């Protein structure tokens, strides 16, 4: 048989996360590649899920999500950001943020439509824009020479918008750079959306993981943006249960309605018992979430210091699970080559950041390391990297 996969998907091979995890397993390397925590979420959340399953919440929940979850989502968005969403028509539960992203792109981006997206970008955006038949118009995030923080040039953003632009896709706090967009940066995005009557899609799965007292600013909270912005988030990063794939989108009724229409044929509904458990946690686990944020900030500092000692130039990380590390001070330039060698050479696995770029040369010298791991794991990784550095 000829290659059965449709042509436009052929460029998307096995994800590098799977490859690096496999390499880590084969070599016994400490895996700082994929971003999942190695400790569980709040005990009451886990208990609640088990209880709901035992007590018979085991059949299809309503397609839009359990009303309890939709109401809890509506409450926390209002409580934290002052944005009000009607739980019946403006909140929709999805199988993780990933399904929200997929449904939104399939529902709102037509063949030939352009999507302005910041690169480096989370890997599902590129694949889903392609699957929808859309075209990416990437805007580069680069380290500011003065601060080392990844940011964009507003002129480049403006230049990326044209007559076929349909949507601007934003992710804040941003994976993989660790940038938390400021209100001023987001206002540049809001301004082009308002001027060109664009839809904004914002991925806020790390909304509660902005560190050092930095505020997370939802794009939908800026003037004129609520009516045109769809926001995706999920319990995975918020409560350290990435395997639960329990997410939601919020937005004005026409946009959420479009997502709903498509999502009913993608997954129809999501896991009801987990939705009920997450609904309770959204109302009650604020302290756990704040404590997790502090713990992760400490882990960021621990790993960043270790990477610097091992000779990397470590990027500024304001939020998320990740730091970027420049390999050039080590005399290396090819991140893919180094990421493939590192598990065997040093006993540590990371992700070559190049895979997050359309213009791959821009990210060739960067590795992404995850710090959402137990301190002992981070210390072991740091010790191994420093021994490796001593040898090279
Ligand atoms: C982890 C992650 C997701 C996926 O969220 P799920 O709820 O697990 O589907 C989406 N976007 C970004 C930026 C992520 O890092």
TrEMBL record:
It holds the Pfam family Aminotran_1_2. GO terms for cellular component: cytoplasm. SUPFAM superfamilies: PLP-dependent transferases (SSF53383). Its EC number is 2.6.1.17. Residues 30-385 form the Aminotransferase class I/classII large domain. GO terms for molecular function: kynurenine-oxoglutarate transaminase activity; pyridoxal phosphate binding; succinyldiaminopimelate transaminase activity. Keywords: Aminotransferase, Pyridoxal phosphate, Transferase. Its cofactor is pyridoxal 5'-phosphate. Coiled coil: none annotated. InterPro entries: Aminotransferase_I/II_large, Kynurenine-oxoglutarate_AT, PyrdxlP-dep_Trfase, PyrdxlP-dep_Trfase_major, PyrdxlP-dep_Trfase_small. Belongs to the class-I pyridoxal-phosphate-dependent aminotransferase family. NCBIfam families: PRK07777.1. This is N-succinyldiaminopimelate aminotransferase. It comes from Nocardiopsis algeriensis. The lineage of its organism: Bacteria, Bacillati, Actinomycetota, Actinomycetes, Streptosporangiales.
């Amino acid at each position: 048989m000829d290659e059965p996969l449709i042509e436009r998907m052929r460029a998307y091979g096995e994800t590098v996360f799977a490859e690096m995890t496999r390499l880590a397993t084969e070599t016994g390397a400490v895996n700082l590649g994929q971003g999942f925590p190695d400790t569980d979420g709040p005990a009451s959340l886990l208990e609640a899920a088990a209880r709901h399953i035992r007590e018979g919440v085991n059949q299809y929940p309503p397609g839009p999500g359990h009303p309890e979850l939709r109401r809890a989502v509506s409450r926390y968005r209002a409580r934290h950001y002052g944005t009000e969403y009607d739980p019946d028509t403006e909140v929709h539960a999805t199988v993780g943020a990933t399904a929200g992203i997929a449904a939104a792109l399939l529902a709102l981006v037509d063949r030939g439509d352009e999507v302005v997206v910041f690169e480096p970008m989370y890997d599902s955006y590129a694949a889903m824009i392609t699957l929808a038949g859309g075209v990416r118009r990437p805007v580069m995030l680069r380290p500011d020479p003065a601060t080392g923080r990844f940011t964009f040039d507003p002129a480049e953003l403006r230049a990326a918008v044209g007559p076929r632009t349909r949507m601007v896709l934003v992710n804040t706090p941003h994976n993989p750079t660790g940038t938390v967009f400021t209100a001023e940066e987001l206002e540049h995005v809001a301004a082009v959306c308002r001027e060109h009557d664009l839809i904004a899609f914002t991925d806020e799965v790390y909304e509660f993981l902005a560190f050092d007292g930095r505020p997370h600013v939802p794009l939908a909270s800026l003037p004129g943006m609520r009516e045109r912005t769809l926001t995706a988030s999920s319990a995975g990063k918020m409560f350290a249960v990435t395997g639960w794939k329990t997410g939601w989108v919020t937005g004005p009724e026409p946009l959420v309605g479009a997502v709903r229409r498509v999502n009913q044929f993608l997954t129809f509904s999501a896991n009801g018992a987990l939705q009920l458990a997450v609904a309770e946690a959204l109302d009650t686990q604020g302290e756990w979430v704040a404590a997790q944020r502090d713990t992760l900030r400490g882990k960021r500092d621990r790993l960043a210091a270790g990477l610097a000692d091992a000779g990397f130039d470590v990027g500024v990380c304001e939020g998320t699970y990740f730091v970027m590390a420049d390999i050039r001070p080590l005399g290396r330039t090819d991140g893919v080559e180094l990421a493939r060698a590192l598990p065997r050479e040093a006993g540590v696995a990371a992700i070559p950041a190049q895979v997050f770029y359309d213009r791959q040369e821009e990210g060739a010298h960067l590795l992404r390391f995850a710090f959402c791991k137990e301190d002992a794991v981070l210390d072991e990784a740091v010790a191994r990297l420093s021994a490796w550095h001593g040898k090279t």
